[in-house]
Amino acid sequence: MAKITYIEHDGTEHALDVKSGLTVMEGAVKNNVPGIDADCGGACACATCHVYVDPVWLDKTGDKSAMEESMLDFAENVEPNSRLSCQIKVSDALDGLVVRLPESQH
Fold first, then answer.
1. What is the pLDDT of residues 28-47, one digit of tens each?
2. Nearest to 29 by CA among 9, 14, 46, 11
């Protein structure tokens, strides 16, 4: 279990306990966090679960795969700390993770 804070574009925060083994995207969807569409359900095929990982957490969330990098080409306003939340697996090591949501997923 890890406490993950999702911060909407307008600053609204959602601090949630997310079960280890789920993805950051699944934690958001299961708890109705607005702003994570996840149209493909986590198959790394749509880029509608784009998040900005707080820079202090980048080394703990792992590297982007080639497929994730490719899918981020379809997201708006990509930044160096952009990730697809479906590709970040939750573990106890991510307890305290902060992700920010873009203004739009389309």
1. 999 999 999 888 888 888 89
2. 14
